[in-house]
Design brief:
elongated, single chain, alpha+beta, 226 residues
Length: 226
């Protein structure tokens, strides 16, 4: 009988404590459990994105050029990643702009992102601003009268689909004179990397489209201190 009374007393006391400190208990649980729950959800979402090959929330900026193998006439493709940045940063944290870019990448069936006016003009300006920022020291040096080197470049926004269904947004950057002089034409290329072969096809298409309608692409000057 005493044991039963003791048990009931404990239950009543505990109930009163919970009632009196309900909000504090809830706050404590949220502070300790919620971060862990969010972390688990983040990991699961990341695994889903990885396994589905969905990298459309990031933009890779790559510089493209070419060289010759051991002094021969055979050309080899040079690709260098300049930066990787989130779509959010490219679009200045504008949610509407993010959706435009990501949705265009999802719809892309022709390498180049299908963005219509007036959105295309805004996206091009964002890309131009991002690329121009890489030359900030060169622009300032030139304004100060210091020696610099400069050249005209063209950029295209593409979304290539590779193995395992992976799609990725890439800003392809090329010297303007390479496109004008149709350097990427012909079959005199030594390509031993499947990714480079796909990119060469993209560059050939880029070259063709630029010749037809240069206004659809981002043209800019890049400058570096000598």
């Amino acid at each position: 009988m005493f044991a039963a009374w003791d048990y009931n007393d404990i239950v009543i006391t505990l109930a009163q404590f919970i009632s009196e400190h309900r909000q504090a208990i809830i706050d404590s649980i949220l502070r300790s459990v919620l971060p862990v729950l969010l972390l688990i959800l983040g990991v699961l979402w990341g695994r889903h994105m990885w396994s589905s090959g969905n990298f459309l929330t990031w933009v890779s900026v790559s510089l493209h050029s070419y060289g010759h193998l051991h002094g021969s006439s055979t050309k080899t493709l040079w690709i260098r990643t300049l930066m990787e940045v989130s779509v959010r940063e490219v679009m200045n944290r504008n949610v509407y702009g993010e959706k435009i870019l990501v949705n265009a990448a999802k719809r892309a069936n022709d390498t180049f992102l299908p963005i219509s006016e007036p959105d295309e003009w805004i996206v091009k300006n964002k890309i131009r601003s991002m690329l121009s920022a890489m030359s900030v020291t060169g622009f300032i040096a030139r304004d100060l009268g210091l020696p610099v080197v400069k050249n005209d470049y063209v950029a295209a926004l593409v979304c290539e689909k590779r193995g395992y269904g992976l799609k990725r947004i890439t800003v392809v950057v090329v010297k303007k004179d390479l496109l004008v002089n149709e350097v990427f034409s012909g079959d005199d290329w030594a390509i031993d990397n499947p990714h480079h072969l796909e990119r060469l096809q993209t560059l050939k298409l880029f070259q063709e489209r630029y010749q037809q309608n240069p206004d659809r692409f981002v043209e800019l000057e890049l400058c570096s201190r000598r």
